[in-house]
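Budget justification note: compute hours in this period were largely spent on complex prediction jobs such as the one shown. Inputs:
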Amino acid sequence: MLKLVSHLNSTFSRNLHISTPLSGSVFMKRQKKVDPEVAKVREARKRKKLEREIRDMQKHSKKPKPVEELTIDVRRAKNLPERIREMPVISEEKAEERALILKEYTKFAHQQRLADEKWLKESIKRQDAALKELKRVSPDLYNSAIQFDQNLLPFHFKGPSLTPPIKGYVSPDGEYVDTTKSWT
Amino acid sequence: MSLLKSLTSNTVQKRLFASLRDKAPKITPQELYEPVFEDSKVYPEYSTINVRLQSYNFVPLEKYEGYVHRIAKKFKFEIVDCYAVAAQTQNIQTYKPNSTVVDSEIELSKYDRTVRISQVPSIRLPLFISLIQTHAPIGIEITVKEHEKVDEDNRYIPDLMLKEKQLELKALDDPAIRRNLGWE
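Corresponding output:
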């Protein structure tokens, strides 16, 4: 028994060849010796090819994300004639009433516009005058006054809501699922 | 001779007619060979600012974007670009009370418009913002911030193939891969 084991041991150690790169995995290729000049040329060619491809791609690369509201929905454009509605007929009194309201509104809007422009002109004039005076009084303060305001940007503001908060409103349970198309 | 006369008498010579030398244009050394272009900017200016308008309601948003554009023109800012970005869509599911049974599914999209302005003097920006705030329509969100590269890149679809090629080109400089090329 011992003789058999010792015989097996000897045969094993003699017949086992290990060439160093192949000692690890089955997937390593035998590394061929490459002529350095050939390798240099190959690398230069590869680099040039990549650079040219990058340049060509960059010419056609900037595709803007499509804005749905500005594109024409082809399917719905085809059956557009089916969905054209006729304008409703408005009685004369109503039309007159509407015209009078429109006139009032345009008058109001015009006055608002004039007030805004007056405010703007005044503000700019006063700013300039104040800064001119400040420059005369103290140049240091003037220099710090015309610097950028660090607390101003980024500026976030929400416009008014349609109604004030409704008393006793019970908001329903639900879920918000973000379905924005991501292009990555 | 005039000096002696002024010393001896109390009269001062009054020359009402300009001499030929006075009539000649006074040229400073700088403007001898090139005309002088004066920079009429008194206050430091922000380089580029994005005014981003977002709303669920499309019509007031478009009108307001036009309004912001007009106001920027009034302030004599330079308007670089005035564009739309793809809307963010949400799928909202409301549940029936005290259960998870879906009551209604609503698809909302938040539309996005941006006005990009440049050459904004530091002191005029707060005036601009306050005027815009006053006329903000219902349900709008205004964000005023300085322009960054990310803002411009978000408008376009990222080109994955271009990125791959650029990574490959960069990888050629990686020492681990350069060793495998065979000539270093």
